[in-house]
Write a structure and sequence with these properties.
Elements: H1 2-18, E1 23-27, H2 33-39, H3 41-51, E2 55-59, H4 63-71, E3 77-79, H5 82-90, E4 95-103, E5 110-111, E6 113-118, E7 130-133, H6 139-152, E8 158-161, H7 165-173, E9 179-183, H8 184-192, E10 201-206, E11 210-211, E12 214-218, H9 223-234, H10 238-242, E13 248-252, H11 260-269
Parallel strand pairs: 1-2, 1-3, 7-8, 7-9
Antiparallel strand pairs: 3-12, 4-12, 4-13, 5-11, 6-9, 6-10
Helix pairs in contact: 3-9, 4-5, 6-11
Length: about 270
């Protein structure tokens, strides 16, 4: 009888595990929602296998949408921009970082904000030029370059918000804007994929190293799930991480204090 009871109990536990609601993982597509589903597919399957439950990828339109998704409990885990992570906490989201991505070109959990222009563009008077930005929540695609311009006392003659780093790069390439604000890793990918030719653009300005994209979870997530999810990100194979087309080779442990420079940037910007 004991064996029967044990077998029934195990069966019920297995059914319970299989019927758990999926974990919602929010990401911003580097190109479009369809490509995000394909690119993040290997990571989702890897996480599902390790967690023993379904992971549902939620692709959102912009950085603000990630903040809102986590703030209002529409996602369990999210890939933030550095600014988005800080803003989410300041706006009341109860989240905590579990991992931070390592960029391929630096080998560090950080990257650079850049202002780029076509090689022949005259950038001697920045205030006379049209600037392309990603969106207002992008650390490298708006916030850090804006602080730099503010320090110089420069007000762009025109500002275009293109919605993605790739779109900004293309706007620079086709002459829609004179200068584009982008992340260094997105320029590296554009060169690798042939979107840009070597020497086609030059770097007008480059920031100090910015702490990279954090993966954060809801603080109320059960501790065992947090620990498993954290371990899976830290142990993620390089080929799985690279498949997401973010030019990231893996993840290391995250530290909230690493984002204090972002908090300083936001304080400067709000003056």
């Amino acid at each position: 009888m004991k064996k029967i009871v044990l077998a029934v109990t195990l069966t019920l536990l297995l059914i319970a595990c299989q019927t758990k609601d999926p974990l919602i993982f929010a990401v911003i597509p580097s190109e479009d929602a369809a490509s995000a589903q394909e690119q993040w597919g290997p990571a989702v399957r890897y996480l599902e296998e390790g967690m023993g439950r379904e992971i549902e990828l939620l692709t959102v339109a912009d950085y603000t949408a990630v903040v809102e998704a986590m703030r209002y409990g529409h996602a369990d885990v999210a890939r933030f921009s550095p600014v988005g992570y800080v803003m989410a906490i300041e706006e009341g989201a109860t989240i905590e970082p579990i991992a931070v991505a390592v960029k391929a070109e630096t080998g560090l959990p950080g990257y650079y904000a850049m202002l780029i222009a076509l090689s022949g563009t005259d950038t001697s008077d920045l205030s006379a030029l049209a600037f392309g930005f990603v969106d207002v929540g992008s650390t490298s695609g708006y916030v850090a370059p804006s602080v730099y311009l503010q320090e110089l006392g420069v007000e762009p003659a025109e500002s275009l918000f293109a919605g993605s780093h790739n779109a900004v790069i293309l706007a620079v390439k086709n002459g829609s804007v004179d200068i584009g604000a982008v992340a260094s890793n997105r320029v590296a990918v554009a060169l690798e994929k042939g979107v840009l030719e070597e020497g086609e653009v030059r770097i007008v300005w480059q920031s100090p190293l910015i702490p990279n994209t954090p993966i954060a979870v809801q603080s109320e997530m059960p501790k065992s799930e947090k620990e498993t999810l954290k371990r899976l990100f830290l142990e993620m194979p390089e080929e799985v991480a690279l498949a997401a087309m973010t030019n990231e080779t893996g993840y290391v442990e995250a530290d909230d204090a690493a984002y204090d420079p972002i908090r300083e940037i936001l304080r400067f910007k709000s003056r």
